Amino acid sequence: MTATRSAARVPASTSPVARVLPLLGVPHLDREFDYLVSESLSEDAVPGARVRVRFAGRLVDGFIIARTDESDHRGELSWLERVVSAEPVLTPGLLRLVDAVAHRWVGMRTDVIRLAIPPRHASAEKSVPDSVASQGVTLGPVEVPAGWADHPMVARFLEAATGGLAPRAAWTVPPGRDWAVALASLADSISRRGLQVLLIVPDQRDVDRLTAVCRSAVGGGAAGRDLVTDLSAGVGPSARYRRWLRAIRGHARIVVGTRSAVFAPLPELGMIIVHDDGDDSFVEPRAPYPHTREVAVQRSLLDGTPLMFSAVDRTPEVAEYVRTGWAHEILPRPGLIRELAPQIVAVTDADPVQARDVAGGRTRLPAVALTMAREAIDIDAPVLVQVPRKGYIPTLLCGSCRTPARCRRCNGPIRAGRMDDVYGPVDLACGWCGAPETAFRCVACGSRALRAGVVGAGRTAEELGRMFPGVRVRTSGGGEILDSVPASPAIIVSTPGAEPVAEGGYGAALLLDSWALLGRPDLRAVQNALRLWIGAAGLVRPASEGGRVFLSADSDSAVAQALVRWSPQSWAERELADRAEVGFPPAVHMIAVDGPAEALADFLEDFRLIDSVEVLGPVDLPEGDQLPGHDQIRDPERLLLRVPPAGLDQVVNEVKAFVVGRSGRRNADPVRVRLDPIHIG
């Protein structure tokens, strides 16, 4: 029957050969294959369309890359089995981006396509109208968007962006400024000139907030729903594909999304805006593990698309773009930061006066912090308290030698707080096995004393409730995150990143336990700490209105001074110089090659650029990091390659050749390659 059907097929009269990329997920087969197109499928078999082809005896999905008259293959060609959808979702521009991302991050195009193009839903394709005709660019003088009058350079940036140039810019959000409102105003200004705008934010909370503000900016109501759409996995596959089609068919003029939205092939894209590029959510957890910021950079280079980085802080990566002149800084008018910033006081436990406990041991809050909170409550303003972790007392240490308290049964961490389990109500118990601890003794020094390592949000809220009777205390973080709070006396205890916006701004903010953020064994620990502090401090009223911020950190440290002076740009420049001196990204590139010890030994034996690249390791895979199929992998290790920027392409080609060659061997364990991982080890 198959032979009869094949005999009945007639090759297409024009361009009968389709070059197809099957989605096989195997490195050595990540290439195009030629198939014959029958006349009956010719009209729908357009470049970029989804198809089904037969490969090695089974039907697989694929995309048509091109149609040609002849094939370089000298054998008999198989037929294209089916056109799944005639929608050309893999556009030429998207294909160029897919190729660039797959090459740079040593991955497969098939993996990048799965990140870039959502799964198809036939009903969605039928419900979305056909592509609209190009609206063209509205000429004329550029008006400064609402709320941007205190940034004189933004007019020149918009003139260049809407005039066919490809400017790149970095904007640091001033204190007290609502970044969502500012970006929505900017996007509305661009969309009114006939262009589409793509805004990328870290998570669903930011998507919801920015989408609502953008819809209000374009007029609200039906117009807002038609002109603004959001792309994120949280809406479900069918709704996501419908919204994605509305964007790529030109109906939506402002598109807000999370990391995968950076690939959306918008036909009239006028600008990409990436907000808060220092957030870890922008690192794709699936192969080939690209960073959204760098994908946006690749897209800007390939398509000449204007690009803007927005954040409350400044990452060393963006600082490098500004330093080299690849991106220009959108500066506020002189004196604006000083007018808008709250007063910031940094104090550590080493200060015997300011840090003394005024509550007789009932709280760890120093006198200056309690004074700030009381003064804010007295003027009917809410107070924000940022603590590094949720819970009650997540970490317990020996009171004498600070060794972590461990369970005698399973070596798990001892936790505090009333809990009911199979053992009944207890005060101290193991956080892993739940066994109660009634007679703790430190294994290092024998002491029976315990102290809190990091006091959680729950315990902090309890302490503040005793200190401020009659004042409402609420928590934000974990399972319950508040979006906003009214302008009334209240204490909001929040974990970093979950701070709600206060109507009229907070009267004070207390940033506690700074050492818990700064002491993490991570290259980016200080960078993340400053980002979280400045994000919380930016929600406080200006100093002229009584706004004050307490930071429990050494006031002489560079990171504390960056907050006190409200100068994240200067800190990023200093951090960039420090990393260049010791050879860390972004001054150099780091390529992590993870796999079994035997595979890494083979890699080092075959690696021909050993003299031009600094090789670090191999070492054991970092604790908590697991390879795909880790149950079958013995002795997982990590190898680090320190690569100068100029030599990246050559090293990438060499590593890719090893990955492809290993993929073609039978029973060879694969290796995982990551470019510039945020957690190096």
UniProtKB/TrEMBL annotation:
Residues engaged in binding Zn(2+) 1: 398, 401, 442, 445
The protein's superkingdom reads Bacteria
Q: Output the InterPro entries linked to this UniProt entry.
A: P-loop_NTPase, PriA, PriA_3primeBD, PriA_3primeBD_sf
Q: Which UniProt keywords apply?
A: ATP-binding, DNA replication, DNA-binding, Metal-binding, Nucleotide-binding, Primosome, Zinc
Checking Pfam families in the record gives: PriA_3primeBD
Q: Where does Zn(2+) 2 bind?
A: 407, 410, 430, 433
How is its cofactor bound, per UniProt?
Binds 2 zinc ions per subunit.
Name what cofactor the protein needs: Zn(2+)
- According to the entry, every stretch annotated as the Primosomal protein N' 3' DNA-binding domain falls at 24-118
Q: Check the record and name the SUPFAM superfamilies matching this protein.
A: P-loop containing nucleoside triphosphate hydrolases
Q: What is known about what this protein does? A: Initiates the restart of stalled replication forks, which reloads the replicative helicase on sites other than the origin of replication. Recognizes and binds to abandoned replication forks and remodels them to uncover a helicase loading site. Promotes assembly of the primosome at these replication forks.
Subunit description: Component of the replication restart primosome.
Instruction: Read off the HAMAP family from this record.
Output: PriA (MF_00983)
Concerning its family, UniProt says:
Belongs to the helicase family. PriA subfamily.
Q: What is this protein called?
A: Probable replication restart protein PriA
Source species of the chain: Dietzia aerolata
**What gene, per UniProt, encodes this protein?**
priA
